[in-house]
User: Which sequence fits this backbone?
């Protein structure tokens, strides 16, 4: 299939909604156009994701004084659609108890804590303190959990005078509390990372916590410390009466491609303990750049995930300035049953399909969504190549005969800042044979997110091309290009 015919098909389908992309400063060539980034400074884990009164709140690990990690604050932004973001002032600053590490936020709509009222319910943030002074003294109890609250939709915050609300029992890595409401027992459940496992605590009021159980010491991946857990229940697609609990656990190092990544477990939670019902480790993402992801609270039936789009192996070296790090596309999670195993499916939130998806010219691939549909009765290999005039190439592919899905960034741009960055192709075996399949590739200047069959498998990788990617080609091993459909949209975000 010739490129010109592919683009003509896209134009015929989508020309009615054509608009122009705006462009950021040439001094920031890798600033994403539709992913969230801080204005300046260092950013890592998403924190305190909560929805209230029409706003999606994004808090995040933030150091405003440098582009490398330092004393952690909570930065803050809000959005009505998770595509366009407004920056707000820093929400939480370090204090005498320590830096403000990762955590979560909930809306205390029933005022269980007594920190708000019926007219102004409290938005409650539960976070980890990191006391560097105690760490320097060689103590193990330098991390513990604190609480802050807001009664004006997150614009101003008061730290709870009784902090810490969960004290450290002597565990060096004791952090990242993720809190959710457990309706059967009418209690709050805190899922907490504790070295090489997670611990569960319960509370009737967010202020007083009781240890319940722990999980994971001898199961899952253990190449590094466990971090940023999340626990939630999802129905199984097509079998909505069947529900399973999902436990997310990030790990650094120990991911399949090196550095950091996020594993997940599927099982049951009874308000006291989590029981894993499977035996093999599964990963939220099979690329290198989706870490510490957690989900929004107070979103009703929707379970929406956001990850930090980087990897601790090289996060402080990537060639961006005066900011470092971006978040992934927000993703809607669901559970699917695939050949007798449950898989956590993550698809770009529908807001990306509804708003600002535009037909683009070939030269505008720097902020694009490319969709390829292919497959038939015979196995075939589909190769999607996005390139620039310097010969740099990002290659995505799927082999329906073997079921292998891959993303290859080895020649996609700058990579000499770290030997691991472009050391290998990132792939996963989907188990899928011949038949129809869909590849959705989202490119945003310095990132590539590949979704297979609507997100049943995902590969997310950073890229740093020396000039904008401006050409796309798709090929089939069967030579039957007429059976391949490709559409291209631009995606318009904040910039």
Assistant:
């Amino acid at each position: 299939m010739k490129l010109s015919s592919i683009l003509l098909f896209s134009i015929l389908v989508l020309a009615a909604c054509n608009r122009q992309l705006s462009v950021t400063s040439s001094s920031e060539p890798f600033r994403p156009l539709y992913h969230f980034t801080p204005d300046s400074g260092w950013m890592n884990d998403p924190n305190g994701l909560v929805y209230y009164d029409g706003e999606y709140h994004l808090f995040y690990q933030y150091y405003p004084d440098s582009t490398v990690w330092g004393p952690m604050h909570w930065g803050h932004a809000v959005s009505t659609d998770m595509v366009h973001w407004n920056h707000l002032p820093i929400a939480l600053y370090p204090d005498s108890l320590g830096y403000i590490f990762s955590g979560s936020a909930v809306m205390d709509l029933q005022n269980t804590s007594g920190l708000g009222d019926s007219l102004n319910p409290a938005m409650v943030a539960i976070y980890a303190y990191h006391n560097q002074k105690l760490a320097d003294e060689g103590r193990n109890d330098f991390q513990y959990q604190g609480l802050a609250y807001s009664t004006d939709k997150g614009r101003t915050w008061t730290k709870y005078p009784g902090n810490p609300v969960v004290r450290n029992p002597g565990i060096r890595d004791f952090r990242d509390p993720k809190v959710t409401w457990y309706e059967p027992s009418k209690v709050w459940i805190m899922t907490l990372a504790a070295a090489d496992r997670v611990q569960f605590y319960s509370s009737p009021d967010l202020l007083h916590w009781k240890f319940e159980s722990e999980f994971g010491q001898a199961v899952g991946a253990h190449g590094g410390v466990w971090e940023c857990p999340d626990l939630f229940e999802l129905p199984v697609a097509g079998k909505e009466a069947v529900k399973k609990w999902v436990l997310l656990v990030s790990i650094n190092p120990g991911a399949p491609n090196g550095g950091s990544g996020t594993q997940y477990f599927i099982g049951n939670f009874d308000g006291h303990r989590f029981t894993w019902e499977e035996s093999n480790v599964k990963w939220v993402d099979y690329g290198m750049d989706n870490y510490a992801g957690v989900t929004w609270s107070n979103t009703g039936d929707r379970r929406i995930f956001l990850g930090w789009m980087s990897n601790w192996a090289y996060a402080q070296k990537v060639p961006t300035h005066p900011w470092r790090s971006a978040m992934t596309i927000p993703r809607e999670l669901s559970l699917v049953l695939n050949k007798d195993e449950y898989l956590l499916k993550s698809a770009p939130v529908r807001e990306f399909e509804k708003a600002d998806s535009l037909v683009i010219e070939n030269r505008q691939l720097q902020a694009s969504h490319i969709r390829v549909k292919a497959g038939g009765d015979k196995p075939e290999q589909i190769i999607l190549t996005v390139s620039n005039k310097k010969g740099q190439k990002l290659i995505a592919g799927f082999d329906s005969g073997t079921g292998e899905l891959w993303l290859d960034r080895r020649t996609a741009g700058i990579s000499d800042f770290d030997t691991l960055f472009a050391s290998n192709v990132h792939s996963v075996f989907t188990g899928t044979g011949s038949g129809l399949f869909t590849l959705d590739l989202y490119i945003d200047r310095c990132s590539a997110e590949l979704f297979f069959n609507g997100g049943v498998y995902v590969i997310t990788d950073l890229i740093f091309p020396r000039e904008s990617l401006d050409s796309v080609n798709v090929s089939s091993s069967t030579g039957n290009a007429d059976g391949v459909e490709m559409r291209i949209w631009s995606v318009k975000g904040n910039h």
User: Anything to note?
Assistant: The mean pLDDT is 92.
